[in-house]
Amino acid sequence: MQAKKRYLILLSTGTCLILLFCLGGLQVPVLSQRGHNRRDDRSLSGSHPGQRWRRFLGPLQTFGSWQPERSDDYNGHMSPRQKREANLGVYTDKRCRMDSCFDFSLCVKNGFKVYVYPVQKGEKMSESYQNILSSIEGSRFYTANPAQACLFVLSLDTLDRDQLSPQYVHNLRAKVQGLPLWNEGRNHIIFNLYSGTWPDYTEDLGLDIGYAMLAKASISTENFRPNFDVSIPLFSKEHPRTGGDRGYLKHNTIPPFRKYMLVFKGKRYLTGIGSDTRNSLYHVHNSEDVVLLTTCKHGKDWQKHKDIRCDRDNAEYDRYDYREMLYNSTFCLVPRGRRLGSFRFLEALQAACVPVMLSNGWELPFSEIIDWNTAALWGDERLLLQIPSTVRSIHQDKILSLRQQTQFLWEAYFNSVEKIVLTTLEIIQDRVLRYSSRSYLMWNSLPGGLFTLPQYSTSLRDFPFYYAKLGQLIRLTYVNGDLFSFVTQLRNSWCMVIVLWNCDKPLPAKQRWPATAVPVIVIEGESKVISSRFLPYDTIPTDAVLSLDEDTVLSTTEVDFAFTVWQSFPDRIVGYPARSHFWDSNKERWGYTSKWTNDYSMVLTGAAIYHKYYHYLYTTYLPTSLKTMVDQMSNCEDILMNFLVSSVTKLPPIKVTQKKQYKETMMGQTSRASRWADPDHFAQRQTCMNKFASWFGTMPLVHSQMRLDPVLFKDQVSILRKKYRDIERL
């Protein structure tokens, strides 16, 4: 009996082993096929959980090499990640970095120059891509000579690669491969906003990008190649090309709470990718301080997928105004849509509504240079219910700091297509010219990386934005009738005087110059143009520059007081003669006025102090067209400098103690050589205002009613108690 039992046990065990071997052998081809690329790699590295099983099936490798024809049913069971890997259109080399896929030798001779391919006749192009190309062609990086280029930009529209979109460009793969300078994509950058299509919306562009860099919206951290690609924001076709609106935070309200704590209003996807996140928002909506609204009414066949919540959601959705919610909420939820990015991101930044990201795996825009921890919060799509309690726990000081940073980032990098494009190019330039790249602090503090040019300096102390106390002063004086009397009054505490001689008359004899306590350097202008007064002369050793016109009369006491004020505002123009601008509604244009009113927006550089960095910025940042116009008219250079400084600082200049003598001296000029005596002088300045505003894309000048006077100025006390007593006598 016992022997019979033993035989039965052995027979059962043998049968089980045979069945197990057969079933395992039948599974081999299927397992190898579904994850052939990445799974095989992981198993070879020793990290695959089925490593022992694969060794046991070693003799059956012929089954693993069998690749049946892929059907639609097979593709339907592949994950989006597997489809991206199987598609040749996605990044050829995910390991590309600047050192391995970029040719630095093209940038050695001419620096960082960008070439845009000529537009081919008959090629359609979206307005957004036209704005991108126009921004590049209008920048200081542009070159029309491909032999001088370090970076190349396609004239073929690559922004929308959704095959269902009317903006989709067909046969792009062949067109790109046929470009004479393509060179497998080396030193090329491709701009893209939309990739993939229904139902998976993968990051496939429909072409082999080779070794080209991507400036892409909605890019995932999985596909993003650090220090090579650039993540850009998703922006609409209505996004302005230049200028752009200011942020909506006008005043810092304390405490910084608004009507709503957390808001969202947008589409609810009933099926497909991105539907899970937005379908769950109703769980935390309370119609009070957390208002998360979705609607099913979008698309042609939304009613076919309509669920029991649609009618109620649609009715609730129509009750609220989106703009009113946006401007009156402390936090704005930014959930993913079909793709990882969303228009809500830029809308929240502009509205000073702290964005709460709900898009797992999204590489945020310009993440290489922007510290998003100072301007945004992160949520997890899997932990949606925790978000309301999380945002309520944030202290009001932190909220105010986050809100202020949203405004800085919006105005510095995102409020126009031009700034988005320039920021992208500046990031790549910093990679190429590593020895002169910006610091993290420059990118993340006022005025931002676009206005702190590393070619000038990489040290923070050389810019006027990062310190408020200077130890030296320079006086930059331009020739005037009272030059000699001014020079004789100079004090030892002043560094030097630089005279720019742009006059056609010969220089005075050396013996005619009076003896002074400080050196006097005379520079004879070669071009004899008015913009030469703002050239970055190497002979200027100090940070502060006093600029004087030839018809200006200032005492040394007035200059001392202006410099004292400037030390507290080193990033602004500080001076005496003030002017203002206004909008003429009848002529629908900007106007210029020299009337003495209660406010001003400009301080003329005929008697003003500013930082010498603005000489470099004036020379290198402003376009040649504006400087040429100024030189041809011999006018408006002071207005252009005010436009530049206000555009950088977003602040008005500083006017110091009123001096009527300055106005009377200028307006009393009767010499034909004086530009104030020219009847066309005022009309030219009106024209300049509008030309400058057109190039900047907005009116950067800011009105102010502040005037700084010395302590006890005009007070009825003894004159001996006043430090700047001579100013009251002027």
Automatic annotation (TrEMBL):
SUPFAM superfamilies documented for this protein: Nucleotide-diphospho-sugar transferases
Keywords of this entry: Disulfide bond, Endoplasmic reticulum, Glycoprotein, Glycosyltransferase, Manganese, Membrane, Metal-binding, Signal-anchor, Transferase, Transmembrane, Transmembrane helix
Bilayer topology annotation: Single-pass type II membrane protein
Residue span(s) of domain Exostosin GT47: 110-394
Cofactors, names only: Mn(2+)
A molecular function GO annotation: metal ion binding
InterPro entries: Exostosin, Exostosin_GT47, GT64_dom, Nucleotide-diphossugar_trans
Compartment(s) of residence: Endoplasmic reticulum membrane
Primary location group: endoplasmic reticulum
Positions of the Glycosyl transferase domain: 496-713
Reaction it catalyzes: 3-O-{[(1->4)-beta-D-GlcA-(1->4)-alpha-D-GlcNAc](n)-(1->4)-beta-D-GlcA-(1->3)-beta-D-Gal-(1->3)-beta-D-Gal-(1->4)-beta-D-Xyl}-L-seryl-[protein] + UDP-N-acetyl-alpha-D-glucosamine = 3-O-{alpha-D-GlcNAc-[(1->4)-beta-D-GlcA-(1->4)-alpha-D-GlcNAc](n)-(1->4)-beta-D-GlcA-(1->3)-beta-D-Gal-(1->3)-beta-D-Gal-(1->4)-beta-D-Xyl}-L-seryl-[protein] + UDP + H(+); 3-O-{alpha-D-GlcNAc-[(1->4)-beta-D-GlcA-(1->4)-alpha-D-GlcNAc](n)-(1->4)-beta-D-GlcA-(1->3)-beta-D-Gal-(1->3)-beta-D-Gal-(1->4)-beta-D-Xyl}-L-seryl-[protein] + UDP-alpha-D-glucuronate = 3-O-{[(1->4)-beta-D-GlcA-(1->4)-alpha-D-GlcNAc](n+1)-(1->4)-beta-D-GlcA-(1->3)-beta-D-Gal-(1->3)-beta-D-Gal-(1->4)-beta-D-Xyl}-L-seryl-[protein] + UDP + H(+)
Biological process annotations from GO: heparan sulfate proteoglycan biosynthetic process; ossification
Highest taxon in the source lineage: Eukaryota
Pathway: Protein modification; protein glycosylation
Keyword Zinc in record: no
Record-level GO cellular component terms: endoplasmic reticulum membrane; Golgi apparatus
Protein family according to the UniProt entry: Belongs to the glycosyltransferase 47 family.
Summary of the function given for this chain in its UniProt record: Glycosyltransferase required for the biosynthesis of heparan-sulfate.
Record-linked PANTHER family: ACETYLGLUCOSAMINYLTRANSFERASE (PTHR48261), EXOSTOSIN GLYCOSYLTRANSFERASE 1 (PTHR48261:SF3)
Name recorded for this polypeptide: Exostosin glycosyltransferase 1a
Organism: Neogobius melanostomus (round goby)
